[in-house]
Amino acid sequence: MDGPMHDTNPDKTTLMFQEAAEANAAVERMLAANAAAFVQLGETLRAAPPSVVVTCARGSSDHAATYAKYLIETRIGILVASAAPSVASVYAAPVAPGNALCIAISQSGRSPDLLATVTAQKTAGAHVVAIVNDTTSPLAEMADTLIALSAGVERSVAATKSYITSLAAIAALVAEWSQDESLGTAVAALPALLRRSWAFDWQPVGTALQNANNLFVIGRGLGLAVAQEAALKLKETCGLHAEAFSSAEVRHGPMAIVGEGFPIIAFATSDTVGDDVRAVAAEFAGRGAHVCLADAAADGATASAAAVPAAKADPAIEPILMIQSFYRMADALSRARGYDPDAPSHLSKVTRTL
Questions:
Q1: Cα dihedral 244, 250, 255, 259 sign
Q2: For residue 157, what pLDDT is reported?
Q3: 293-351 pLDDT per residue, tens
Q4: What is the mean pLDDT of residues 76-88?
Q5: φ/ψ of residue 251, rounded to 5
């Protein structure tokens, strides 16, 4: 069995750290670069609303698609479905004609299965929105609307700033589409709030996971997207078996294995959806689990030894702020466990899935 890829200089500043630290500037660039595109897309979608939204993504980008699903369904009311890329790339199945909106999310824009799926959607009449970092990619060239992430070069295998800019782009898109001024104001405040969140101390999470092997990461609604992302990062950079669950879904069986000392990370937004995460976290703590709760309702305060700080804002953007704090902790934890977060075993930056 492969062991960790040992970091020979644990005090170095990693690419993952440097790139995650740039997220606030990357979001600021992305919002400025795409301001006109968001306005035009919002007008287009209001004039001719799609019957369905189809997302197309893999890995971290697919977690951004989870965020898109919850934000579009709760703010717009249109059903969002995730395309299974193998339907196009392996089965070569056609897509029924219609007036779908296809949102494709990718850092590289070069994975063959993603391109096959977008081609099938476009052939069926979908309006393709590409949220992509590489504007020279085939995906960018296929787009009816191009949203350039403008995150800059991302050299660490672990995506950080490109994921955060993807979430911010989705929030900006929905703010324009819905003409929700409150959400638009929250999106504009993201760069400053990300700077604040980067400074938050999540070391209690790292301490809890230093010698762990397995854990659950809990969220719900918009927070599920960052729970999924956190679980992936813990797997690829820290060698931890982490599973992400909705606080609702974890009650249907998985919670049976949670007992004394079992590690839990919980992401709780400040709204009623977060109340459910807080309730599950309290239940697990009552069983003796080691719970680390990021609670936006506390607005940066740590009410108990189990809490880590999270900023209170519009609940739609709170998960974006939480994952920024998480990335800093995950980088430190990876190195503390003897891994190099920039070069996870068996992984490469561009995954060319067929």
A1: positive
A2: 86
A3: 999 999 887 656 578 999 999 999 999 999 999 999 999 999 999 999 998 765 554 55
A4: 95
A5: -75, -15
Residues whose CB falls within 8 Å of the CB of residue 265, separated by 6 or more in sequence, listed in order: 205, 215, 216, 217, 218, 227, 230, 292, 294, 326
The DSSP call for residue 268 is E
Structure tokens belonging to residue 351: 């995954």
How many angstroms separate the CA atoms of 273 and 231, rounded?
A: 20
Segment 151-190, tens digit of pLDDT: 999 999 889 999 999 999 999 999 999 999 999 999 999 9
Residue with tokens 């709204």: 271
Nearest to 22 by CA among 135, 154, 139: 154
pLDDT of residue 1: 30
Model confidence band, residue 210 (pLDDT cutoffs 50, 70, 90): very high
Q: Which residues pair with 53 in a beta bridge?
A: 80, 101
Q: Please name which of 107, 84, 308 lies closest in space to residue 202, comparing C-alpha atoms.
A: 308
Strands (E), 201-262: 214-219, 241-246
Alpha-carbon span 238 to 339, nearest angstrom: 6
- Local structure of 64: helix, strand or coil: helix
Q: How far is CA 305 from the centre of its chain?
A: 26
Residues 6+ apart with CB under 8 A from 199: none
- Where do we find the tokens 């080691």? 290
Burial degree of 325 (CB within 10 A; 0-12, 13-18, 19+) = buried
